[in-house]
């Protein structure tokens, strides 16, 4: 009777009654309740969120914890994913578990503490069990992060962070554990607290008070920074704590080996701190020549200009203090000759010029080493170094420059759909777990259609384990319909239809009321894809198709005309009715590159004697321009391309979704909300209109331009796929790539570089126009020149120095022309190379920020490729006064072009 009463109390959601009943039960009675409790838990999992039965969860949470006897089983029950959002309060769980033995509680709390953060085990529960057990505090990530949250949260009720830490009985153990928890420093609690609520201040103060071991904190910070791999925010916190501890000279001296490692391998902010610590010892003579040489060799190898310049300054001070070290240190200085920054090269050369006379004649090896390193200098500096070192220029003729571009991608034929339902199920599972590519998507879709036509029951049985747990399999029908009414969600709508989890009215194939215009700018392409998926989902339930007509022949999405004729012939023999949207998509995909093949296919199509055969023959005879007709181009902060109507798509034989695709872009106004933000969907659009990449590029150009100008994430990873798409490219594709070169994130710029090189390899890159667009956008400062410089340098470093220079040759005049009113600039006025710059400049004479960096990349490209000639307006920069980076690189470029 007691077990039945307990289960009834759980069903009613009476947590208090459950606690009372559990306290009076024996272990045997508690175990007897578990079968019914497990059955109830299983039932609740299938209930929708709003079901009245959901109120039983907190009581069930308590009952399961009270009625199981093993610590492992209780931990599994408490941390169960289905209990996560409807847990019982921690004090209630502590109450029902409080009668267990301390050793058992110790085991339980450590098992809970080892759960991942996603299990969301309450800290209050774990800390309460620690108090009951009197055991050692866990130091796992779950426990330590929970403790940190608790300390910060408690300050809102009473006290401060430092006050709460003072009262914590496990302060030393948990603070020590902080240094082992990944990304703990990136937490907002640590980064943004102020005054007494600032963790860095609190730990420093507690160390001064003797509540924390100062050496433990210092060792923890240094070890954490040495470990590497942390985010910038995480490193900043631990570096800040280390700085706040204000190490004594002895504390810094005993860690010289650590500073050496940090200066060589740590992120730049951390390396800079280590470098400054070592610099003090070097100037005091305590570092020693051997360690200074080792440190300098590592730092000068780094790409960060600030660190390299600081190291050269340090070496200059040491050489000035003790000229006798020149023979040992100047060969190290010469290692900077190979740095990509010409200013760094010149600084290193000046050091050599100043101190080469201090190298004794008997140390000829040092002079030879410096002379050998001089070959890495830029041409102008190399000649200067040879004069200083008394070395004759080499008479060897330079090797002819050869441009290196990536191989032109070739389309591949699609593999036929899987023959068995087991193979198909594996492919469906793989596609659901990743974005996949066009080939995988089309093969899998065709496979679903073929097997649904052959044996739908066998297909459903094979797919059962694959779709178990999909969102549409667990939602209430009304919610499922609502989701699929908004979007097909790729293959999901077809799978949901096979399992009859979506109503036929949602899938209705006709869609006769679909508008031929309106919506967002992407709706023309997305509409065709969506309509085809809805049609397929409808037909697998009502009138299964034997196979799809529009499955591409090639990985680009193209369909050979002869193959489509053969499929239509098979439909005719089977008496199958083609899907209207599927057939329209097939027409859009038909390849026209071979006129003879198209003419032969048109003749064969007419001989079929079917409406679809006649329509195919008519379509193959229709004149389709390689590019849409441009109606306008907007200028200003954004360059956008407007295309006019596509007459070939306005035929009434096409469904509304296809006719909408042919409407002018001007009809699609910007919308506050648009669901087409995922660039994996953009890749599928290329297969909607294969061979016509401009149609897709014009529709995503707004997104990419906004991503650059407003520094938001956009689908730049789509650019290489766009560049590889077959067909003639034009202004829209080019502008997409140009915007990508100025993207905020390095990985986005890298994608644009890949696209640029692919277009160049295919002979489709108009470098003059691309460079001109890049220059005009850079002048506005909406597209940051520093980002452009990094992108072009990356492109050049692959071996495409000629292509990179061709783009810069067209871009730089627009930026250099801005100097026309300011040839009298003062030294250092344009040294601010920090990225940024607002939306304009105070006066036209002020150089665009980052122009010096662009000129440096251009100079390197010219020196490597052997390009010659003149660059308009270059003298405006080269003839300015001073030795700023802008002036230095302009002179270097002018000299290289004139060789």
Q: Tally the beta strands.
A: 2
The average pLDDT is 88
Distance between the termini: 102 Å
Q: How much is the radius of gyration in Å?
A: 35 Å
- Proportion of residues in β-strands: under 5%
How many DSSP helices? 47
Largest sheet geometry: 2 strands, antiparallel
Shape estimate: flat
Domain DUF7824: 417-608
Pfam families: DUF7824 (PF25148)
Region (Disordered): 820-844
Protein name: DUF6493 family protein
Characteristics:
single chain; 899 residues; mainly alpha; 2 strands; 61% helix
Structure description:
This protein is 61% helix and 1% strand. It is mainly alpha-helical and 899 residues long. Among the domains are: 1-138, no CATH class; 421-630, no CATH class; 693-828 and 836-898. It has a two-stranded antiparallel sheet with strand order 1-2. It is flat and about 95 Å long. It starts with a helix and ends with a helix.
In short:
Among the domains are: 1-138, no CATH class; 421-630, no CATH class; 693-828 and 836-898. The protein contains 47 helices and 2 strands. The protein has a two-stranded antiparallel sheet.
Write the layout of secondary structure elements.
Blueprint: H1 2-12, H2 15-23, H3 27-45, H4 57-67, H5 71-78, H6 90-97, H7 102-113, H8 123-133, H9 141-157, H10 161-167, H11 171-178, H12 188-192, H13 199-208, H14 214-227, H15 232-244, H16 249-253, H17 256-265, H18 268-283, H19 289-300, H20 305-321, H21 326-333, H22 342-355, H23 364-373, H24 379-389, H25 421-433, H26 438-467, H27 471-474, H28 477-486, H29 492-498, H30 504-507, H31 523-542, H32 561-574, H33 580-589, H34 595-607, H35 611-621, E1 630-634, E2 640-643, H36 656-661, H37 679-688, H38 693-709, H39 719-724, H40 731-741, H41 746-761, H42 767-779, H43 785-797, H44 801-816, H45 851-865, H46 874-878, H47 885-898
Helix pairs in contact: 1-2, 1-3, 1-4, 2-4, 3-4, 4-5, 4-6, 5-7, 6-8, 7-8, 10-13, 13-15, 14-15, 17-18, 17-19, 18-20, 19-21, 20-22, 21-23, 22-24, 25-26, 29-31, 31-33, 31-37, 32-34, 34-35, 38-40, 40-41, 40-42, 41-43, 42-44, 43-44, 43-45, 44-45, 45-47
